# Entry
Amino acid sequence: MTINELQDEIIEEFELFSDWMDKYENIIEIGKELPLIDPKYKVRDNLIKGCQSNVWLHQEFTDGKVIYTADSDAIITKGLISMMIKVLSGHTPTEIVESELYFIDTIGLQNHLSPNRSNGLLSMLKQMKISAAGFQSKEIKN
Amino acid sequence: MGSGLDIAKIRKDFPLLETQVYGKDIVYLDNGATTQKPLAVLQALDAYYTGYNSNVHRGVHLLSQQATAAYELSRKKVQAYINAAHDHEVIFTKGTTDSINLIASSFGRKYLNAGDSILISAMEHHSNIVPWQMICEERGAVLKVIPMDENGVLDMDLLPSLLDERVKLVSVTYVSNSLGTVNPVREIIRQAHALNIPVMIDAAQAIQHFPIDVQELDVDFMAFSGHKLYGPTGIGVLYGKEKLLNDLPPYQGGGDMIKTVTFEKTIYNELPYKFEAGTPDISGAIGLGIAIDYVNSLGLSEIQAAEHELVTYALAQLAEVEGIRFIGNAAERSSVVSFLLEGIHPYDLGELLDKQGIAIRTGHHCTEPVMDFFDIPGTCRASFAFYNTKEEIDVLVKGIKRAAAILI
# Structure
């Protein structure tokens, strides 16, 4: 599936929930599907420090695709990063760099990407794109 | 044993308390971060900008005279509120942080030398740590810390050994923003003064909760913010004893703080203007004056009684929540309750309370060393003001239980 198809799938899933608490229960559920970072990569260099919750992110470039793994100490943050990885992981660096994430806005979680939010999500998204951009040179060589 | 305040009536003075978030009535329990503003303050800001907005201390025209009079009247209101000996001992600043930076810079440049030290406490807000670190680094001085115990109480037994002739100033918070502890500042001042060491008090979390008499306390410098005292943001106060302030060099240069300027030499203005460079926050100062009027109309002792009742009720109700752990268990405390639920990250809990219309604060509360001391990522903090109700605390407790059911 393309990045946008994956986003649309999440949007559709969230249309089932009108109550905020149900939405969050779903986010937490999605968090359980997060491809967890290998403990050996859970190091300071991979830590995206938010003011409140921390995110560890690792990326690998395999067969022309970027594969992300991550973890967080807060389970809602875990759900949010799980969704972002679900959408972006397994795509080419160019696809990731050129992607525009609209699903967060559409499902009403835009405040998590505002600078006010200190869950490290905005920094994580930036980091995902930066690392994808880093892999782009390899992509061209391939 | 309740306070004599008519809370239902008082709540009508605060338009924001009528607001809804996510379709629910707001339960605002983040008063430690900032308080809501009574209508009288909002009307005063409006009246200033619509009626007599003008720059102070400069114009010959009527509006400027009116603005100056209102600005200076607020200074007198602050003076009376803290019982300062003179109105020129009240310096208007941007807030507590600005006030502390002013003293750190002006005092540090004049008195701090290599090998000297500044003494703070283990429960300071970053605003009462970083400015001292900066000036200590600049001057080759050392920052020393009064430790605390696991209840969040300062280890006063160690104070005498920390006070020596190299300590040039002690700067401690009156009330901890993350633990709620009320510190024995009177005793700290007594011991420091015995060695002729001046003391600065960070009163950001104290000034809105109980009466402070700077002369009776004999405190040398004190800082607080208007917005935590039901006033506007952007205005704060530095109190300093006249003699000490006169001996300090200015903090910033610019308009209003000068008497005469030539390219060779500038003669500085007198107190308080020496420390108020540039156009001040005129509307903020006027709004703060009105906020003080409002607090006085309720009475600080009544406020204290109402808030004591709230925090006592909150502690009892919250204690019933399974897995709760209070961070900060001082006997002397303000209306702040910091807590954690076992196995739940404070951010997750804060997030789910928010969606239920309950505003609390989560995180390290700008006191990272306190979080490190307890080895926790942060806390959830509910902080109460007199306009809060027991019903709101019930909503909080219910909300926590609902969130916990989802998070565990």
Notes: The interface with chain B takes residues 20-21, 24-25, 28, 51-54, 73-77, 118-119 of chain A (CB under 8 Å). The two ends of chain A are 22 Å apart (CA to CA).
